[in-house]
């Protein structure tokens, strides 16, 4: 207490005042002062009052006070008089009453005296009567004793017959009662000397009892006996003093035999289910359809568990309550229960593992719920019941996890199915580029993605059946947590996306990629992109909302999945560009490689392979366009339409150039110009990653194709006409390809290089007149 | 023209796209035709040459041979030819195909080279932009694949002395010097050095990966070769006629030597 004394005193005073105030008593000194001057107070001091009055009041006040007091005195006097009068009346009436009472009491006293006298008379008479009856009473007592004795003896003599009768009628209970009674009697008279007949009796009854015990024991062996009968028999045997230890092992053996029947039922169901799952089995085996899992749990497991609980309850009543009859009874029981429960749980486990994913999660969830409820109900009865509930919970966890895996593989199978469906749909109608109807790619994409999302949604909704609030195990936080987070979200949903990405990657692999149709690649890449931009986000949110997953720590973040999917999409589209580019370049390469350029005729038209290439590209353009947006704004449209008719002004020899000079105004030395242009132009990455747009994709394909053309041309030697044919072809490509490509400069650069290389490789480099080239191309 | 005289003329039934001296003593010459390999025996003393064997290469009619190499091991008794997407090895003693690497390239094998110091090891390159290393005893899967080029790879060459150095040239205008130390004949550096300062040295070992990139060319690079005199010098030639002579970077050199 750091507070100083003064302040603590003040505090105490304040506290006291408050208390006093509360209890309504004033400080005593003050009260005394006030009381002395108060007329109505018991401490009133007239002298002091008068003194004070005279001292403090003026004359008029005094006069007033005097008159006042006088008036008061008078009123008080009259009041007193009325009071006295009233009291007097009452007093007089009381006196009268008392006088009356005195007279009544005298009468009563006389009557009481007479009563006392009569009582003494009665007492005297009663004593005489009892004296006379004393002798008779002793005699009657003796007679009744003899009667009881005789009755007992009669019972004893009748006992063997009755026992036999009862045993014959299977009225064992009665028999045991008789026996116990006789036992008591015989004990009483066991010491008496005259016991020859009694001994005979005893022997006879012992014989019956042996029979009785044998009959009861037989009943214990009998598998048909109901638990009630067993219980009765054991009780009787215990009463007959049979050893509890042997009995309890017999009872356990009996219960095990009975439960074995139930268990056999269970395992036969499991076998049936296995046979049904195994479609190779012969048909007659499959005629016995197995019960579904709900029925299995509901009927078979329940009956097993209720039989077990019944057994345990009666066992406990017999051997353990109120006190243990034999030391090992409890441990034997728990051993037995443990082994039974183990076999039950393993049977259920194997049955659950046979459950296929085909029949909705709801049934399985209900079955698991029943199982759990059953186990919980039995847990109160069974020794170590909680352990079995825990084991059951583990079983349920295992079953749900298995279920989730099944769902995942189902999803994957569905993915495979829809992929092959898409493949088929895309392969069958090869749409001509000119046909009016839109290619089915977009439609296929929509159905593919829709199917995917729908399937995931349906699966997750289906799995939600396991955490419905009405399920007894579904509400457990731990189960719920692992189930929602680990199994459904991570294993099923994220696992599926991973699988999807893996599948997509598989298409890009050199091994798998060769056989995949390019349109499937295209579709998948678009699907990846859609997944990345919206569907993954939507589905993950859907799952999180549905399962109420709020804490996302430790889970795969959305961004990871998105980036994986995006990467897969990029890989797919790159692969698509590569495959298509190679397809086109294969055509170009063959067309260049197989021709004899040194002995070519004068070009009359564009080579048909170039037309095919352009057609092919137009088809790809339509195909890609049905799935991807246009992309970055095209090299200014109006410009390109003009510049596409641009003449060639690549590196050429002096001789040809004057023919072109009208088209290319500022040509000092076109070879030099081209080299300078090259200096400033960007290095072209041929197999570079592309963006997700039509233009970028087509540019990628064309780049690959033209680079191949360039390399092939460089491997050949050309005559004059061969060069001119190349010139025509290049011009044709230039006129027709600009509309597919993002950067026209790139196209021109590549085509210039092709022609340039052809000029380098030409024995007599002489180009054709531009107007002729134009005419040839227009005709084509 | 400048005092050179024609020693001998070689004749073949097909167009010859390239010839190579036998690597041991130069007594033989290998010519690559369109569909067959021709080997001539040279008699330098008499200035005469005779066709020793003509080996037809099985394959489709359109697919011409793109290249062939002597196998420097086993006394140059083998040659390998790049044919379409396969590599075929021929034994000259019997003129039969001895081994084959099917689908060594997804598109077309452009060139191949034997590891000069390690038997059975072979590198191929081609139109799938990849350089692959093979063990011809196990031709089902490549030992290693390099995917550094972005267009066809036209040439692959092992350094004659330090075969971890691999030179590649491509039509993406680049020449790459790559280390394939894990496949080389001296994967852990010189064994003698290990005794002196073993663990300290191991940190400085040459790892696999790209060592140098020559971007001097402004057109496709069709040829690249190591100098036969200096193991640290190489040259590359591009379409526009530019010849670039480069050196192995100094740090790499020290890493290999020290």
What does this protein look like?
The complex is a heterodimer of chains A (780) and B (258). The longest helix of chain A has 110 residues, at 59-168. Helix content of chain A is 77%, strand content 0%. With 780 residues, chain A is an all-alpha fold. Chain B has 258 residues and is mainly beta. Chain B has a domain at 104-185 and 204-257: YVTN repeat-like/Quinoprotein amine dehydrogenase (Methylamine Dehydrogenase, Chain H), CATH 2.130.10. In chain B, strands 1-2-3-4 form a four-stranded antiparallel sheet, with no helix packed on it. Chain B is globular and about 50 Å long. Classes of the chains: A mainly alpha (780), B mainly beta (258).
Describe how the helices and strands are arranged.
The complex is a heterodimer of chains A (780) and B (258).
Chain A: H1 5-23, H2 28-36, H3 46-56, H4 59-168, H5 172-189, H6 196-221, H7 227-239, H8 244-277, H9 283-287, H10 293-320, H11 329-354, H12 361-379, H13 385-427, H14 441-463, H15 477-508, H16 510-513, H17 518-547, H18 558-593, H19 608-627, H20 637-643, H21 654-660, H22 670-680, H23 694-714, H24 720-737, H25 744-760, H26 770-779
Helix pairs in contact in A: 4-5, 4-6, 5-6, 5-7, 6-7, 7-10, 8-10, 8-11, 10-11, 10-12, 11-13, 12-13, 13-14, 13-15, 14-17, 15-17, 15-18, 17-18, 18-19, 18-23, 19-23, 19-24, 23-25, 24-25, 24-26
Chain B: E1 18-21, E2 28-32, E3 36-43, E4 48-56, E5 65-70, E6 78-83, E7 86-91, E8 96-101, E9 109-114, E10 121-126, E11 131-135, E12 144-146, E13 153-158, E14 165-170, E15 175-179, H1 191-202, E16 209-214, E17 221-226, E18 233-238, E19 243-247, H2 250-257
Antiparallel strand pairs in B: 1-2, 2-3, 3-4, 5-6, 6-7, 7-8, 9-10, 10-11, 11-12, 13-14, 14-15, 15-16, 17-18, 18-19
Family (chain B): Belongs to the WD repeat EIPR1 family.
WD repeats (chain B): 102-137
Domain EIPR1-like beta-propeller (chain B): 17-175
């Amino acid at each position: 207490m750091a507070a100083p004394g003064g302040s603590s005193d003040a505090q105490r005073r304040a506290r006291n005042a408050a208390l006093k105030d509360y209890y309504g008593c004033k400080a005593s000194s003050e009260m005394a002062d006030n009381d002395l001057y108060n007329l109505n107070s018991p401490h009133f001091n007239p002298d002091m009052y008068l003194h004070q009055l005279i001292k403090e009041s003026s004359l008029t006040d005094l006069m007033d006070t005097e008159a006042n007091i006088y008036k008061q005195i008078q009123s008080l006097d009259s009041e007193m008089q009325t009071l006295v009068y009233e009291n007097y009346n009452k007093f007089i009436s009381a006196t009268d009453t008392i006088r009356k009472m005195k007279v009544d009491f005298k009468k009563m006293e006389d009557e009481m005296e007479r009563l006392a006298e009569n009582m003494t008379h009665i007492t005297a008479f009663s004593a005489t009567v009892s004296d006379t009856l004393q002798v008779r009473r002793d005699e009657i007592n003796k007679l009744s004793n003899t009667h009881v004795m005789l009755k007992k003896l009669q019972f004893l003599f009748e006992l063997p017959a009755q026992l036999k009768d009862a045993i014959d009628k299977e009225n064992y209970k009665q028999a045991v009662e008789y026996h116990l009674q006789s036992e008591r009697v015989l004990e009483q008279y066991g010491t008496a000397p005259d016991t020859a007949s009694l001994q005979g009796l005893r022997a006879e009854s012992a014989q019956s009892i042996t029979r009785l015990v044998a009959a009861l024991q037989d009943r214990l062996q009998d598998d048909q006996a109901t638990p009630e009968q067993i219980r009765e028999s054991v009780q009787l045997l215990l009463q007959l003093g049979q050893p509890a230890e042997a009995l309890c092992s017999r009872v356990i053996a009996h219960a095990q035999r009975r439960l074995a029947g139930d268990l056999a039922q269970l395992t036969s169901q499991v076998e049936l289910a296995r046979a049904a799952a195994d479609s190779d089995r012969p048909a007659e085996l499959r005629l016995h359809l197995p019960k579904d899992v709900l029925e299995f749990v509901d009927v078979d497991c329940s009956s097993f568990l209720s039989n077990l609980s019944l057994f345990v309850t009666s066992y406990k009543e017999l051997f353990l309550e109120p006190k243990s009859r034999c030391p090992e009874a409890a441990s034997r029981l728990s051993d037995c229960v443990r082994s039974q429960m183990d076999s039950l749980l393993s049977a259920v486990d194997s049955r659950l593992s046979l459950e296929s994913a085909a029949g909705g999660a709801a049934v399985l969830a209900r079955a698991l719920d029943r199982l759990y409820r059953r186990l919980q109900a039995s847990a109160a009865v069974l020794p170590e019941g909680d352990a079995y509930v825990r084991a059951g919970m583990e079983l349920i966890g295992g079953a749900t996890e298995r279920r989730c895996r099944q769902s995942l593989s189902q999803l994957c199978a569905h993915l495979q199915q829809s992929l092959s469906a898409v493949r088929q749909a895309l392969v069958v109608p090869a749409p001509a580029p000119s046909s009016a109807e839109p290619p089915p790619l977009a439609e296929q994409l929509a159905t593919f993605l829709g199917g995917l999302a729908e399937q995931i949604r349906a699966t997750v909704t289906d799995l939600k059946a396991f955490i419905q609030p009405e399920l007894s195990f579904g509400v457990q936080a731990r189960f719920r947590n692992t189930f929602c987070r680990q199994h459904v979200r991570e294993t099923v949903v994220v696992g599926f996306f991973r699988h999807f990405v893996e599948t997509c990657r598989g298409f890009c692999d050199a091994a798998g990629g060769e056989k995949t149709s390019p349109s499937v690649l295209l579709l998948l890449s678009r699907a990846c992109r859609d997944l990345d931009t919206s569907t993954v986000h939507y589905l993950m949110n859907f799952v999180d909302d549905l399962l109420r997953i709020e804490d996302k720590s430790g889970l795969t973040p959305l961004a990871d999945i998105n980036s994986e999917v995006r990467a897969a999409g990029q890989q797919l589209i790159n692969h698509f560009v590569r495959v298509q580019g190679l397809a086109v370049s294969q055509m170009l390469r063959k067309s260049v490689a197989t021709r004899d350029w040194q002995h070519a005729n004068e070009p009359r038209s564009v080579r048909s392979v170039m037309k095919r290439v352009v057609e092919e590209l137009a088809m790809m353009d339509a195909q890609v366009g049905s799935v991807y947006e246009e992309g970055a704004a095209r090299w200014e449209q109006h410009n390109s339409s003009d510049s596409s008719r641009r003449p060639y002004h690549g590196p050429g020899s002096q001789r040809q150039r004057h023919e072109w000079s009208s088209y290319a105004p500022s040509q000092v030395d076109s070879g030099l110009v081209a080299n300078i242009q090259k200096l400033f132009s960007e290095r072209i990455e041929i197999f570079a990653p592309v963006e997700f747009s039509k233009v970028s994709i087509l540019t990628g394909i064309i780049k690959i194709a033209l680079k191949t053309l360039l390399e092939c041309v460089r491997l050949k030697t050309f005559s004059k006409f061969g060069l001119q044919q190349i010139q025509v072809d290049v011009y044709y490509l230039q006129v027709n390809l600009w509309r597919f490509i993002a950067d026209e400069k790139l196209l021109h650069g590549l085509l210039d290089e092709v022609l340039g290389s052809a000029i380098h490789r030409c024995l007599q480099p002489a180009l054709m007149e531009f107007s002729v080239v134009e005419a040839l191309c227009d005709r084509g | 023209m400048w005092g050179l005289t024609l020693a001998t003329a070689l004749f073949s039934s097909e167009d010859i796209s390239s010839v190579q001296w036998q690597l041991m003593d130069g007594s033989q010459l290998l010519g690559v035709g369109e569909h067959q390999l021709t080997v001539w025996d040279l008699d330098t003393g008499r200035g005469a040459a005779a066709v020793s064997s003509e080996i037809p290469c099985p394959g489709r009619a359109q697919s011409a041979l793109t290249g062939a190499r002597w196998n420097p091991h086993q006394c140059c008794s083998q040659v390998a030819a790049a044919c379409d997407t396969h590599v075929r090895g021929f034994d000259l003693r019997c003129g039969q195909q001895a081994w084959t690497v099917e689908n060594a390239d997804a598109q077309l094998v452009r060139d191949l080279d034997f590891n000069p110091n390690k038997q059975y090891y072979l590198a191929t390159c081609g139109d799938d932009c990849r350089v692959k290393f093979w063990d011809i005893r196990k031709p089902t899967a490549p030992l290693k694949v390099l995917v550094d080029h972005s267009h066809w790879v036209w040439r692959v060459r092992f350094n004659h002395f330090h075969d971890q150095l691999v030179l590649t040239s491509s039509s993406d205008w680049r020449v790459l010097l790559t280390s394939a130390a894990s496949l080389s004949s001296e994967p852990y550096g010189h064994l003698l050095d290990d005794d002196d300062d073993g663990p300290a040295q191991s940190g400085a070992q040459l790892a696999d990966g790209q060592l140098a990139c020559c971007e001097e060319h402004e057109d496709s690079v069709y040829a690249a070769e190591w100098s036969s005199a200096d193991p640290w010098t190489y040259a590359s030639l591009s379409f526009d006629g530019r010849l670039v002579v480069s050196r192995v970077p100094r740090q790499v050199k020290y890493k290999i030597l020290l």
